[in-house]
User: Fold this.
Amino acid sequence: MRVLFVAAEAAPFVKTGGLADVAAALPAALAALGHEVRLIMPRYKVLRTRSEPMTGPQAATFLPVGERAEEMRLYTGALGEVPVHFLDIPAAFERDAIYGERDDIRRFVLFARGVLAAMQHLREVTGWSPDVVHGHDWHAALVANYLRTYYAYTFGHIASVFTIHNLAYQGQGHPDLLGVAGLTEGGLLENGMGPGIAGSFNCMARGIAFADVISTVSPRYAREILSMEYGERLDGLLRHRQDRVAGILNGIDTALYNPATDPHLEATYDAEQMAGKAACKASLQARCGLPVDASRPLLGVVSRLAEQKGFVLLEAVLPWLLRETDAQLVLLGSGDAHLERVFREAAAQHGDRIAVRTGFDAALAQQIYAGSDAFLMPSRFEPCGLGQMIALRYGSVPIVRATGGLADTVREGFDGNGFVFHPFDARHFQDAIARALTSYRDAEGWALLRARGMRADHSWQQSARRYVELYDWARALRPR
Ligand code: ADP
Assistant:
C-alpha cells in the first residue's frame, strides 16, 4: 500500500510533542511491514538554518489564499528508508516559531493546499500517488476537506484517514477563513456541529467531517471523545461519525527507550538483571540532593505541567505525602507558572524529600524513569500518554488516573502492572499512592509487579498492523 503521511512535525526534524514521535516511528514501522510510505511536512526556518540534508526544489508553484497567491517550493529528504517531502512556503514558515502565531490557521491552510499541489506534482511528474492520505491533528485536517471538494475529481479515489492526537487543539478561527481557504460550509458541519463551534472556522471539525475514517491514539480516548465531558464541543459531530471512529494505541521507540542500552543511565539493566536499577536510583538521589537510601520509595514525575496533566492533585496531596509517608519525589516538568512555583517552594522547604527541575531535559527524564520506583500521571485526560509506557519499560510502576490511554495500558489488581484511580480528586489519588507504598513494602510482590510491566511489548509493530487494517477499511469505503 502507498501511504502519504501529513504532519506538522516529525522527530528529529521538529518536535514539540508526542505527535513528532508518531510521525517518525509509525512510517518506519509501516515500511518494515512492506508498505511504501512517504511523509510530507513544512520546511520550517529552523530546518533551513540547520541545513538538514534535502534536495530541491523539485517544483515551484503558487498557492491561492483568499485574494493572494503565495509561493511554494517542494524539497525532498529522508527519514531512514522513508522519503520526506518538505513544503517551503515562505509566507507560512519563514519565521522562528513552529506554532503559536496569530495567523496559525492561515499558515496551515497554506500547508494543506501545498500538500494537494505537491500530490499533483508527484503524480504528474514522477507517477507516484498514494492509496491513502493519513493526516495528523488539526494542522493537517484540511487535506481531507480539499480531497473531497476542490480535488474530488482528481483524487476522489484516494482514501483519507485522520488521526486525532489531542482534541483540545482544534485550529479554530473566524468564519472569514472560509474564504481564505476557498471552502464552503459543508452539510455535515451544519448538522453535526456542537454548540460553540457553529459560526466559526474549525480545522479539526473539518478533518472529522471529511475523512473516510477517523482515529485517535487509544481505544478508550476514542470512546471518551464521543461524550460531552471529553468531546471539546465536537462530540456531536464525532457521534454523528462514530461508526467511522477507531482507537489505536501508540507504541514507543523501544530501541531509544531501553534500560539495557540507555547511554544516559548510571548502569544498565533488564527484567532479568535488575542490579543496575538500584544503581540508577542511588545516582538519581545523589544527583538531586536527596538522602541516598535504597529502602525509601522514590516517586518520579516527567511531564508538561499543563492543566490536562492533573498535577493540581499532586499539589493537594503533597502535605499528606510529606507528613504520612517516607517517600521521596523527583519532579521534572514545566508549564503552569503556579504549579512550578508550588513545587519549587516545596522542594526549597523539604530538600531532603522533594527535588524539582524545570525545563526540558531528555537525559534527566530517562534517569528519572530508571531511578524511580513509581511514576505519577494523574491526568485529567490523556489521549494516549507515552510517559506510563516508558515508565513500565524502565521498571517504574505507574500510578495513573483511569482515563484515555492510561486506562488502556495500566491495570491494578491480579496480574496488574500499576495503580489506578478513577474520580479526578485528591482523595482517590492519595489512596492510589498509599496502595502503591504499601505494596512497595512487600519486596517480592513489588519485584513481580515491576517485572510484568517491563516484559510487556509496547513496540510499534502491533500498532502498525492495526493501522494497515484501518487503511484497508478506509479504502473499502471509497467508491471505485
Ligand atoms: P504529551 O505529549 O501530552 O506531553 P506524553 O506522555 O504523550 O505527553 O509524552 C510526553 C513525552 O515528553 C514523554 O516522552 C516524556 O518523557 C517527555 N517529557 C515531558 N516533559 C519533559 C521534560 N520536561 N523534559 C524531558 N522530557 C519530557
